Amino acid sequence: MDENIVELNIAIGGISKELLDVQKALDAYREKQKRKEAIDEEAMTFVSKAELVIEKAENGGLQLTSDQIRRIKSNLVKILQRIQK
Question: According to the lineage, what is the superkingdom (predicted)?
């Protein structure tokens, strides 16, 4: 039973780190956007991290809720639309 708890803690830690990386990238993008600074680098960082997390979740490598995936995809679409303008 202790092995299951350890494995669960490791899995939760991995998911938390992935989501934290995506959130940090999104926060950096939004902060630059507020200051009307160049946002291309932050946008691309978020896009690459978000795509990786979504891919892992869809392939079963990360256990995310459908709401978490939806929110990441929604932010991804918004940022990609802004980059393409």
Answer: Bacteria
Backbone torsions φ then ψ of 64, nearest 5 degrees: -115, 155
pLDDT in tens, 2-17: 777 777 777 777 788 8
Can you give the residue range of the structural domain that contains 51?
Answer: 2-84
21: exposed, middle or buried (Cβ count in 10 Å: 0-12, 13-18, 19+):
middle
Q: Which residue reads 């891919």 in tokens?
A: 55
Query: How many structural domains compose the chain?
Result: 1
For the segment 21-50, the average pLDDT, to the nearest whole number, is: 83
